[in-house]
Give the backbone structure.
Amino acid sequence: GEDVEQSLFLSVREGDSSVINCTYTDSSSTYLYWYKQEPGAGLQLLTYIFSNMDMKQDQRLTVLLNKKDKHLSLRIADTQTGDSAIYFCAERGGTYKYIFGTGTRLKVLA
Amino acid sequence: GAGVSQSPSNKVTEKGKDVELRCDPISGHTALYWYRQSLGQGLEFLIYFQGNSAPDKSGLPSDRFSAERTGGSVSTLTIQRTQQEDSAVYLCASSPQVGNTIYFGEGSWLTVV
């Protein structure tokens, strides 16, 4: 069945780069997403990538997609304390269902 | 409104009571989703509405859970005879049409005591 996996925790120092990884199982996924959830808030769309792309860059965010290995990553350059949050990877295949991972809690140390 | 609006933001209820959670999607969005986020878990799909089509209820965990969407806009998620394991954040999301990005509300935090 469809499944999305992420590591639960990541800790980095302010100013360093953060890399959050995600693996998924549905090879028919057409879009893959990264959402950010700050404490007490809903999920905010950060960025997404279409499955025929390998990379997408948006300011400090770089998304890399390895479709062969079904691996998605989110790199945050120059990580700031305001980036501390839970980051969710999600896939959407041929249906309307979005399958989310368990989320990676990013902690940025000053 | 500008975003997806959910109410109440927090609800504490006694075991066995019924609760209703409300979602007001972004104006013009035809697709509406309910997800559940339990502590330490990912987002669990509950139900999906698209226009006037029959909803996909395949994610509802038991027959104590039901949802409706009136007039193609506001949706209500009802949990009957609540149990402690129902404690979670219930997130609503909407999308302008099938296949587009979904936008989330801030969630309703339900605690069953």
About this structure: Chain B touches chain A at residues 4, 31, 33, 35, 40-43, 45, 48, 50, 56, 91, 93, 98-99, 101-107 (CB under 8 Å). The two ends of chain B are 33 Å apart (CA to CA). The mean pLDDT of chain B is 92.
